[in-house]
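Section 5.1 Outputs to date
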Amino acid sequence: MKLYLVGRRDLAPGLLAAQLVHAQRQFQADHPVRELAWYTGSNTLALLSVENEEELLDLAERVRQSGLAVSVWREPDLDNAATAIAIDPDGRRFVRNLPLALAAA
């Protein structure tokens, strides 16, 4: 059971890492029961990436429409741009073909 954190590859590696952490924290605030089940059940993360904000928001919307929990982190220092999302552990089907985040860093 993994919590899927997805960020934007068009961000610098250090910034991307911070955004992924923010997305996890946002998921905890938005979905405390689901986050606690993940935390106590496995506490395993998958750090993945998409190309840009448009792809990120499209992915978040597809997950949301499926009924699964998803949280979007918007970075205040970047004009509230969406920079990372956290996806419910049952969302593997939405991310199974995404590349790892920070793989080239």
